[in-house]
Specification:
362 residues, alpha/beta, Spore Coat Polysaccharide Biosynthesis Protein SpsA, Chain A, UDP N-Acetylglucosamine Acyltransferase, domain 1, 2 domains, seven-stranded mixed sheet, seven-stranded parallel sheet, 8 helices, binds magnesium ion, mannose-1-phosphate guanylyltransferase, transferase, GMPPB_C
């Protein structure tokens, strides 16, 4: 089978992390975001994966090529000279996606869930339509694409409304599709939106169905959702009895994922909902919860960290206090005893005075 992952866009909502690393390579639960998807596709029997990119492909090529062998897949890069939106990239990758009659997967690169690809294939083949969208329920549907059904035909989509201004329902497009190759014939070779242009045609043809997702789902393209998604993901590992979670104890509270090379000092308390990347050092007496610490960063003794993403190669000083969805970019230094609440600190900055309100430090 075949799959295409939409990896374009500049990831602006995940700045400052995306100023130095493309969004799909930012580690979610200690693994580049996109690897969660590549792994799930490979597990479902996908052998050809197209990454549709328009931003810094070199870095991605270098990082991802090495995983081809590990996962037993061919990864090709389809590079756009201008952003082609969410449908144009399918046309650009036509040769791979149409190489046989089997349906292909399309994934938004920033969604995290327990990808139900095998069930999705079965469901899609059984209804006989041209496309299936994975659906999930959310409380705030206005920032997503909303799916509306007829009561008489509960899986056949009756209307698809991208980013509705008025409430039409709360079952939304989870950003995962399976489509028949003929769907590509509906797309022109220009910047186009699958949500606004292609789905309405399929709805009109009464050939677009939805498949209900079980379990958690999150678009992790913004810091607040990245942290919330981390908590949901760790919880799902816990439910599955996954052995990679740290054992709870005097220093570990709730669900915590720790790279084997990370070190935790005496009297420190980590968790719940924390991930510590490679070579991270947590000092003595540190208290850290609901946070992500990326590779090679150090949290010095007695710092207090909550709802914070610490980017790579950064240092948080002694007795510092970080909270309120603070995000540190690459190579940031927070001096001793500093208080930071809801700041986004750009790469290579040093912060030596308190930041009490949401702000960008550059
Ligand atoms: N290759 C390529 N080229 N990819 C692109 C481009 C482009 O020009 N523009 C966006 N993408 C990719 C993004 O990287 C992302 O993986 C996906 O297409 C969707 O774009 P977002 O910018 O993340 O869209 P959204 O989150 O506002 O809305 C989409 O996702 C929601 C679920 O999270 C829509 O598909 C909604 O209908 C959906 O509910
Ligand atoms: Mg998104």
């Amino acid at each position: 089978m075949k799959g295409l992952i939409l990896v374009g866009g500049y990831g602006t909502r995940l700045r400052p992390l995306t100023l130095t690393v493309p969004k799909p390579l930012v580690e979610f639960a200690n693994k580049p975001m996109i690897l969660h998807q590549i792994e799930a596709l490979a597990k479902a029997g996908v052998t050809d994966i197209v990454l549709a990119v328009n931003y810094r492909p070199e870095v991605m090529v270098n990082t991802l090529k090495k995983y081809e062998k590990e996962y037993g897949v061919n990864i090709t890069f389809s590079v756009e000279t201008e952003p082609l939106g969410t449908a144009g990239p399918l046309k650009l990758a036509e040769e791979v996606l149409k190489k046989d009659d089997s349906p292909f997967f399309v994934l938004n690169s920033d969604v995290i869930c327990e990808y139900p690809f095998e069930e999705l294939v079965k469901f899609h083949k059984a209804h006989g339509g041209k496309g299936t969208i994975v659906a999930t329920k959310v409380d705030e549907p206005s920032k997503y694409g909303v799916i509306v059904h007829d009561i008489a035909t509960p899986n056949l989509i009756d209307r698809f409304v991208e980013k509705p201004v008025e409430f039409v329902g709360n079952r939304i497009n989870a950003g995962l599709y399976i489509l028949n190759p003929e769907v590509i014939d509906l797309i022109e070779m220009k910047p186009t939106s699958i949500e606004k242009e292609t789905f309405p045609i399929l709805v009109e043809q009464r050939s677009l169905y939805s498949f209900d997702l079980e379990g958690f789902w999150m678009d992790v393209g913004q810091p607040k959702d990245f942290l919330a998604g981390t908590a949901l993901y760790l919880n799902s590992l816990k439910k599955k009895g996954d052995k990679s979670l740290a054992e709870e104890g005097e220093q570990i509270k709730g669900n915590v994922l720790i790279d084997p090379t990370a070190k935790i000092g005496e009297g420190a308390l980590v968790g719940p909902n924390v991930t510590l990347g490679p070579n991270v050092v947590i000092g003595n007496g540190v208290r850290i919860q609901d946070s992500v610490v990326l590779a090679n960063s150090t949290i010095k003794d007695h710092a207090w960290v909550k709802k914070t993403i610490v980017g790579w190669n950064s240092t948080v000083g002694k007795w510092a206090r970080l909270e309120g969805v603070t995000v540190l970019g690459d190579d940031v230094e927070i001096k001793d005893e500093i208080y930071v609440n809801g700041a986004k600190v750009l790469p290579h900055k040093s912060v030596s005075s308190n930041v009490e309100k949401e702000s960008i430090i550059m």
